[in-house]
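Hey, quick one: can you model this chain's 3D structure?
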Amino acid sequence: MTRAVLSIGSNLGDRGGYLKGAVDSLGDLVMAVSGVYETPPWGGPGPDGQESPPYLNAVILAVDGEDDPSVWLRRARALEDAAGRERDPGWRYAPRTLDVDVITVWTAAGAAVSSDDPDLVLPHPRAHERAFVLRPWLDIQPYAQLPGHGWVYDLVRAAPVAADLPDLRPCADLSLEP
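Sure thing. Here's the predicted structure for all 178 residues.
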């Protein structure tokens, strides 16, 4: 059995609908879902100089009977595919219908999974720098720790994340609860 933190985001089309669809597709695997936050795009303008639209972001805590942590990556890709995500090889941070990142995974015994596999680096190598991951995570796990980086509460208060917090806007009228 594994437990995972997944970050979900959308900045194209029915943003809230894509997030809700991802949560609903996970069904009984979902233990908790954060609030939704509107956030500025990450990564700067595209090759044509155009900025991405703002994102809606949330975090999911989920559990699965599988012992293999890579099940989370397969599930994340399946959710993205179901939302019609198209990858632009020329623009890493291109707008997308749905982005699902596996942030961290724990074994049934509670041990954090580490992975250097290029397809699934765990914990996520940039999660500790992203307010749009850490702040929603606190909604569902106030005492969370990001393996290798420490308490999420402390990470949110430290640079560079603290500087990004004012740009996160809670969307109280949008619930992703299953």
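One thing worth noting: The chain has one domain: 2-170.
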